Amino acid sequence: MNTSAVPTLEIRPALEIRNVSLSFKGVKAISDLTFQVERQEICALIGPNGAGKSSLLNILNGVYVPDSGEIVFEGEHFRRMQPLEAARRGIGRGFQNNALFSGMSVLDNVIAGLSRHSRVTLLEEAFRFPRALKEERQFRERARDVLHLFDLDKHAGTIVGTLPYGVQKKVEIARAIVGTPRLLLLDEPLAGMNSEEKQAIAAVIARLNKELKLTIVLIEHDIGIVLKLAHHVVVLDYGRKLADGLPETIRDNPDVIAAYLGSDRKEVAA
Ligand SMILES: Nc1ncnc2c1ncn2[C@@H]1O[C@H](COP(=O)(O)OP(=O)(O)OP(=O)(O)O)[C@@H](O)[C@H]1O
């Protein structure tokens, strides 16, 4: 049999970080970092404070431009990309501290997540042209569908700032995915939560990954949750990659234990 005639399926990773470096006025935030994220995996970035985790997310959604190296997203190479372009290419982002409009309703906050996808001009919007009205209707419907997915229907008209923190975090993640990204970046989505809220948000993240087939890169300090939630863990330390692999191999890696897990290890191994 002539195997060369058999078509091969090219299965590319969702995301490749290739030799990326970034510094701020001489301070190295990221040094020659290389790793890849497979499609539909949850990849957790862990590491001590100042390790470069948030800086990397900021590169991935176009806020920072690396000094060198490149990013390959779904086979397309780039080094410089505006946040608007990142959103249009299918990269969604949630932030470390809620970046919601606290005086606006839940529904309007989620609709705001679609503004970068708008096709209407300011003029069309100002004069309420039919195209603008149609888009507004479509955005509203899409936002309502997403609220339903998050079981937030009953809060649609509620002012976001009046809701408990755990619910606000759900709204923020809803806003990050309303534009149907294929890669979702989450910066400490469980920060500041009690353990019940953490479990609820971790369950939401697992569902988004499974049901919407979303590739997710998240930063998280709660190692217990990371080991349960992530398929792949990348450990950063002083901007360098210290380890990269399956959660269980990371948990047992002596360098990681020394640099980061420390006394948490017993709890992690339990
Ligand atoms: N905008 C900036 N200007 C100057 N230095 C910065 C900037 N952003 C990050 N840094 C520096 O880059 C390094 C990496 O910071 P970064 O916030 O990426 O780390 P991190 O791993 O996300 O930390 P944390 O867990 O505390 O959020 C640190 O030394 C930090 O002080």
Quick structural gist:
By secondary structure, this protein is α/β, with parallel strands linked by helices. Helix content is 38%, strand content 23%. Adenosine-5'-triphosphate binds next to β2 and α1.
Could you explain how this protein is built, in words?
Keywords: ATP-binding, Nucleotide-binding, Transport. It is a single chain. With 270 residues, the chain is of the alpha/beta class. It folds into two domains: 12-90 and 181-270, 3-Layer(aba) Sandwich (Rossmann fold); 101-178, no CATH class. Helices cover 38% and strands 23% of the residues. The protein contains eleven helices and ten strands. It has helices spanning 53-60, 83-89, 106-112, 122-126, 130-149, 165-177, 195-211, 223-229, 247-251, 254-261, 265-269; strands spanning 15-24, 27-37, 42-46, 68-73, 76-78, 91-94, 183-187, 215-219, 232-237, 240-245. It has a six-stranded mixed beta sheet with strand order 6-7-8-3-9-10, sandwiched between helices. α3 (106-112) packs across α5 (130-149), α3 runs parallel beside α6 (165-177) and α6 (165-177) runs parallel beside α7 (195-211). The longest helix is centred in the middle third of the chain and has 20 residues, at 130-149. The chain starts with 14 loop residues before the first strand and ends with a helix.
What is the string of SSEs from the N terminus onward?
EEEHEEHEHHHHEHEHEEHHH
Radius of gyration: 20 Å
Bound molecules: adenosine-5'-triphosphate
Structural class: alpha/beta
- CATH class assignment of the largest domain: Alpha Beta
The named CATH superfamily of the largest domain: P-loop containing nucleotide triphosphate hydrolases
The CATH topology name of the largest domain reads Rossmann fold
